[in-house]
Amino acid sequence: MFGKRGSNSGGNTIIESVPEVSAPQEQSATTAPIEPVAASAPEVQRTVIEAAPPMSMNETDGPREKDEEYYDTKSSVFTALIDTIDLGQLARMDPEAAREEIRDIVNDIISIKNLAMSISQQEELLDDICNDVLGYGPLEPLLARDDISDIMINGANSTFIEVEGKVLPAGIRFRDNAQLMNVCQRIVSQVGRRVDESSPICDARLPDGSRVNVIAPPLAIDGPALTIRKFKKDKLTLDQLVKFGSISPEGAIVLQIIGRVRCNIVISGGTGSGKTTLLNCLTRYIDTDERIITCEDSAELQLQQPHVVRLETRPPNLEGEGKITMTDLVKNCLRMRPERIIVGEVRGPEVFDLLQAMNTGHDGSMGTIHSNSPRECLNRIESMIAMGGFSLPAKTVREIIVGSVDIIIQAARLRDGSRRITHITEVIGLEGDVITTQDLFLYKIEGEDANGKIKGRHHSTGIGRPAFWDRARMFNEENRLAKALDDSAEHEDGI
Hints:
This protein has helices at residues 41-51, 68-84, 87-91, 95-112, 119-134, 139-144, 177-189, 238-244, 249-260, 275-283, 326-333, 350-358, 374-387, 394-404, 469-474, 478-494; strands at 148-154, 159-163, 166-169, 201-205, 211-215, 225-229, 265-269, 292-296, 308-312, 340-343, 366-370, 407-413, 419-431, 434-448, 454-460. It is α/β, with parallel strands linked by helices and 495 residues long. The chain folds into three domains: 29-134, no CATH class; 141-229, Beta-Lactamase, CATH 3.30.450; 238-494, P-loop containing nucleotide triphosphate hydrolases (Rossmann fold, 3-Layer(aba) Sandwich).
């Protein structure tokens, strides 16, 4: 049985005088219920609720910030629960069965403590405590919301979320920094990592692919800082990006063709601009018979093709050994007979190996880079090659870039929180020592509406035949490409 004798913080015995009730016969010994309180407990609870005033919480409101009284009550019940149950045996149970057992015990504790709570308040407390014991505590309701794109926790008492591009207070808090640290440990342990004073920085991911970063004391002064970049359960498509205004219908057709005809693509953009989302959208147009190898720091890409190999970097162990870098992965995947190589995020010298792959028969490879414009993207590629210690003349580096990269797609997050694809740019060649480019599509900001939302439009620059025209013709896409470019140019002239 789970029940054990113990005392709460006030010194009152929790299950001391409660008679044992036999378990239902259909349950096995490993899933036996916690010893319940006396059978009259529900009557006691109902009497108390009717006689005492409820806690100072508004039942009719939606999500709200809980007050100090709620957290004091929760702490008291949680302490009594921990004193009452055997956590070791609880961990061996099925999650749903464990949740039901916890709910039964918490109901009994509420009755014994004579806590005056309405039904809705009691359900809220039950869910919170189950999340604390079995899940990610106060994070659970935020993780369940699909409209949240980022969760930012700056210590136990400060949590913010991003919804529709706007950063807002989350209205939750952790019991203390120790509870927050425990949640961080649960997350990173799923991918075989740890975070503590000796290893205070860690990247990890949740089971749904959401990216997690933890930085703990002593580096984080005000308590552990936890940042979660969430992914939507329903993967975005280019059609949805058109609906959201991120790209025009004609621009989406051009992107589809670029993804299908094996152009080498670099997606450029700032933090939170939607680079990984756009990369996921483009990979939908890769043929199902192609062998794709992805290299990422934290596995985020969600490819739908059947022939995909996913690789992930590895940090050093406690002895400082065993580190596998992105450069190691890109070099190794060249030996794995890839048809396309996709690098989740290019940050350093691995860009040189990616360019070499693009230039040696792995057409259609893709990657993302942090930069604010197509021209800055090219400059960053040069800088990252120099960071790798390659002592090559600048002109040679630029020739490699021109021979490797076909398209730069620029994504941006605007000041109203909206995300737009602002450039679809071709890399054409060299004029002297300067890389020449031409824009196929641009986004032009035209002002703001009454609600502060930015208004603008995408339009073709009027280039009739882009440099990848011959590729499009090989895939019988030249007519669709010409129509998309012409339609966008005609629409622009008609405005």
